Amino acid sequence: MVPDISLGGRTYGLLAYLYGPGRHDEHLDPHLVASWQPELAPDPGRDPQVTLKQLQERLDLPVQAVREHRRPKRHVWHCPVRADPGDRHLSDAEWAEVARRVVHATGIAEEGDAQACRWIAVRHADDHIHIVATLKREDGRSPRRHDDYNRAQAECRQIEKDFGLRRLNPGDGTAAKRPTSAERAKAERAGRTATARELLRDHVRQAMSGAADEAEFFDRLAEAGVRIDRRFAPSGDVLGYKVALPGDRNRGGEPVWFPGSRLAPDLSLPKIRMRLGSPEDAVVPTADSRPRQRDGPARARRDATGIVERITTAYTDGDEAEAAAQLSGLGEVLDAVAQTSPASTRQQATEAARAFERATRWHTRAERADDRAVRSAARGIIQAGNALGRGEDGGATAMLLSTLVLATLAAARWHAARRHHQQAAAARQAADQLRSAYRTAAASPMRAMRAQGRRLPERVRTRHTGTVEAALPGRIGSLRREGGWDALVATLDQAERAGHDPEALLHEAVEWRELNTAESVTDVLVWRLRRLGRLPADPSQPRAGTRATKQQPEPGRTHAATPTPQNPAAPEHRRRRR
Fold first, then answer.
1. Whether residue 124 has pLDDT greater than 90
2. Cα torsion for 461, 467, 473, 479, to the nearest 10°?
3. Structural domains of the chain ordered from first start
4. Most buried of 262, 374, 424, 479 (most Cβ within 10 A)?
5. Three-state DSSP class for 172?
6. Structure pTM?
């Protein structure tokens, strides 16, 4: 059950909407289910002799009774309360109890207070009500409604328990502000799929992803077409900023500005500066990421895959400050992927990044830990440019998405273990979106690898089956039933042809991270093997510039004849010196 509080200045306009047909004729049988005093609150929905004007005048009477200069400019308190889609339909009497408990909990009309604000609860659908109150008490004073949003949330959690409804996750006060119903209606009229607040939050997060410094952050915002208004001190230093979408204006024709702190708690300028760090900590482009080479997007995604795998260990094994930094960095990687994904996966990647931003924010501060490695991965992805949905780009995108699924699931487990309920749910939601994107990106390269695996001689397939059984004893039956089995056999054969020891390489892939949360273990192993062995992500042709038979063994490997990567691996995660 979700409450959503907002303030307005036109009682009649809100009543006209609530008792009207709705924007898509979705309002059915609008009527009152509760009010401050039933005998004083006329119901235009059930009494044909009553008008909206009469109901509005009754509600506004305490406001109109005070002197004009004491009247609040936004005197209308509006709180829709919506049940979960899976909940049973509540009766009018049950919704009336919900309304009375919410106005009591928020300080609008405490039980037994004869001088409380006037309020009504309108029902025009099965799954929700709208509570409307005017913000002057009968004695002329204003209600004590401090922290009303959180108090409404807490009361709804208790109502869910008492009514046997689905229990939603309790909040911790670190969530970004939800768009109001007015903002959603405005976005719908403009033909946008998201509100201005949500779109601007995406733009700011993407501009921050891998940015080297504050100047680059603002440059990226400007390049994205966002309007920026910076607040300067007399010394010329920037004190703050606000942003607006082009064409998004209020009734007076002025731009609708949002300060960073109103987009999300971690997007204020001081918080952004903490994330960017000091000049000596700045993320700098590597030699490989500066030029936009033909294989640049694929190479950047391969490099990012290894870094994401390593930082997953850092936040699952480190302390909370360490985890906060690494999860913020992982969010930047998701923002970078969302900006540069092929059209076929961009929507899912964007939704995943938008969901995961909630998992990057809780009460632990992140600015003191070292997250330069993961932020450099985000920067490399952005500087390499947009990836194509085919060839080596498509395969490398699938490789990175497969790793990001496991990384976000690891984040969900980490949060759940610490009872960060909303953050855990957000990470799981991001993982679901990434799985969908992965299936799209992996369809073509996995199909090619499966075909190659099926064409191998039976004796070769039998030999590689034995290799898998030795690495994962007791699991061969379930693995052979997975769709990626033939692709795994093909990958082991290609690794052997490239000069690797397949058994040693597979053992390294298995031991790198757990596989229990993988939807397809064979898919995960395919991409780990291809990354560790520097095999082409697009199996139809060798990687550009790679000649496996002439490569030298990589120092430090436990198996022989492993080819040396063309690109040096990104620096290992370094813990902050204490």
1. yes
2. -40
3. 2-168 (3.30.930), 175-282 (no CATH), 443-550 (no CATH)
4. 374
5. coil
6. 0.73
